[in-house]
């Protein structure tokens, strides 16, 4: 009993329900004809003495009690042997939070949550069926739960969902983690305008991410596809997830990220790609969330390098421990990132830097092969830098300056010649010039006379 007491106490605390502290005195439930079935349960009264919470946990009960106190809004029925849910008793109509975890539930009868009288049905806000053995949900399994916001089906054996969520218009969070899903019905999440949290972790989408089903998640902020045996992302697959902020793809088998893998994710703040087998990320792959991203986790992949232009690395939190990093000129930015995150980034190349940590390198040591430099010390690097880059540039600049100067000088000479002609015209024309002028005038007049 003490154990139950403590569990219920903690459970209610984590629910965050406003319970006056002095009222957290769990008591035996009311006695009387109706409440005979509650003998193994505990009740939580509010400060007026009305029971608002009921806990029947780890009891010998094998069915739901037909009656619970009238104003109860929270009902814990965890760790019993319910086996199946046939019908939620009509008397539960004040219930908002219902927990039936670890009950060996294999089956939920159709319309189990639907009351024949609309206003007397159950109007749950949260339903938790974690750790049961449910395999399938049908179109009418959850009918009637039109106010349900949180649905937790963690740790079942679900492989088929049909159109089970069609009635759950208020749904905000769905937890389908640790089930046996290999696919999702195309319209499974259709018409759920407030669905912001979708957790599909620990299912098996080896055959491909169910993009069609996900394409309606326009309001969804969190999508969890961790440990789903995903081998490949498809171009434009997340195109319609315009509100998505967090995308969890860690612990899959992804190898390649293209420029279009994340097309459409304009609001993303957190991307977790850790513990895949990624060896290539195309340079434009992260462009869609360049302005919004705050955290990228790339730990435990096969990444050799990440181009400096891919993301504003200096502004975001990037994790990339456990990659075979090539510490060349393109990875120079990683030094700041590593010193900030405290990660131990070890160089796998180039040869002279193998096993050095990124933070231990001198900035001049991040060089590229095609620079044709083999630096051994920072000083030499400086000299090679001057020889290979600065000298040619200086030469080019000098040539440019010289040719510009030449041009200017030439132009000036030409101009001064023109000018001297002009000035002499202002002065008196020479006799020769006069003769020339009259000749041309005659020439001009000639055609006129012909007319
Ligand atoms: C249920 O109670 C039994 C003893 O009555 C105990 O051994 C067991 O650990 C309890 N299970 C849970 C999940 O609390
Ligand atoms: C649903 O779950 C979320 C996250 O656990 C929680 O913050 C929220 O209060 C829950 N909503 C209801 C109605 O229980
Ligand atoms: C479900 O079972 C797992 C493994 O036994 C356990 O770790 C987890 O806490 C359980 N979850 C719930 C909500 O009971
Ligand atoms: C969705 O959420 C909004 C705001 O929280 C609420 O006003 C609206 O009624 C909800 N829609 C449905 C279908 O529950
Ligand atoms: C990917 O995008 C980058 C930057 O926009 C571009 O330079 C690169 O050529 C693109 N790669 C492919 C394979 O299209
Ligand atoms: C780098 O470290 C590994 C593991 O400590 C070691 O096996 C390897 O020989 C080292 N390589 C070089 C070039 O030092």
H/E order of the elements?
HEEEEEEEEEEEHEEEEEEEEHEHH
Largest sheet: 14 strands, mixed
Distinct ligand kinds: 2-acetamido-2-deoxy-beta-D-glucopyranose
Overall radius of gyration? 38 Å
CATH topology of the domain at 181-319: Leucine-rich repeat, LRR (right-handed beta-alpha superhelix)
CATH homologous superfamily designation of the domain at 181-319: Ribonuclease Inhibitor
The main sheet orders its strands as 1-2-3-4-6-8-9-10-11-12-13-15-17-18
Number of helices: 5
Distance between the termini: 129 Å
Arithmetic mean of pLDDT = 84
In the CATH classification, which architecture of the domain at 181-319 applies?
Alpha-Beta Horseshoe
Strand content: 5-15%
- For the record, what CATH class of the domain at 181-319 applies? Alpha Beta
Helix content bin: 10-25%
Short summary:
The protein is of the alpha/beta class and 451 residues long. The chain contains five helices and 20 strands. One 2-acetamido-2-deoxy-beta-D-glucopyranose (NAG) is lined by residues 259, 282-284.
């Amino acid at each position: 009993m003490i154990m139950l007491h403590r569990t219920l106490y903690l459970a209610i605390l984590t629910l965050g329900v406003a319970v006056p502290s002095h009222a957290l005195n769990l008591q035996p439930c009311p006695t009387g004809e109706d409440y005979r079935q509650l003998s193994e349960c505990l009740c939580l009264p509010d400060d007026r003495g009305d029971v608002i919470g009921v806990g029947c946990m780890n009891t010998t009960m094998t069915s739901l009690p037909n009656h619970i106190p009238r104003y109860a809004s929270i009902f814990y029925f965890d760790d019993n042997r319910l086996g199946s849910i046939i019908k939620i008793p009509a008397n539960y109509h004040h219930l908002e939070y219902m927990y039936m975890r670890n009950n060996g539930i294999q089956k939920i009868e159709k319309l189990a949550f639907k009351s024949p009288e609309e206003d007397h049905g159950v109007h749950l806000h949260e339903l938790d069926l974690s750790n049961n053995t449910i395999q399938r949900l049908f179109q009418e399994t959850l009918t009637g739960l039109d106010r349900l916001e949180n649905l937790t089906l963690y740790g079942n054996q679900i492989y088929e969902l049909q159109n089970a969520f069609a009635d759950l218009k208020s749904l905000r969070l769905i937890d389908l983690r640790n089930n046996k899903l290999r696919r999702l019905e195309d319209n499974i999440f259709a018409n759920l305008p407030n669905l912001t949290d979708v957790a599909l972790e620990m299912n098996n989408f080896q055959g491909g991410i169910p993009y069609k089903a996900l394409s309606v998640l326009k309001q969804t902020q969190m999508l969890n596809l961790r440990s789903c045996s995903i081998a490949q992302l498809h171009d434009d697959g997340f195109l319609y997830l315009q509100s998505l902020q967090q995308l969890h793809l860690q612990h899959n088998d992804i190898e390649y990220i293209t420029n279009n893998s994340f097309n459409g994710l304009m609001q993303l703040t957190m991307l977790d790609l850790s513990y895949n087998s990624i060896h290539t990320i195309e340079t434009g792959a992260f462009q869609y969330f360049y302005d919004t991203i705050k955290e990228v986790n790339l730990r435990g992949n096969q990444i050799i390098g990440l181009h400096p232009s891919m993301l504003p690395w200096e502004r975001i939190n990037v994790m990339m421990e456990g990659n075979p990093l090539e510490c060349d000129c393109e990875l120079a930015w990683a030094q700041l990132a590593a010193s900030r995150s405290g990660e131990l980034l070890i160089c796998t190349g180039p040869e002279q830097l193998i096993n050095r940590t990124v933070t231990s390198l001198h900035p001049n040591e991040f060089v590229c092969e095609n620079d044709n430099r083999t630096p051994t010390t920072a000083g030499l690097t400086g000299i090679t830098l001057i020889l290979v880059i600065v000298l040619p540039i200086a030469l080019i600049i000098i040539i440019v300056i010289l040719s510009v100067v030449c041009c200017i000088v030439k132009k000036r000479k030409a101009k001064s010649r023109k000018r001297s002609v002009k000035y002499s015209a202002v002065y008196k024309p020479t006799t020769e010039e006069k003769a020339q002028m009259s000749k041309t005038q005659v020439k001009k007049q000639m055609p006129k006379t012909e007319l």
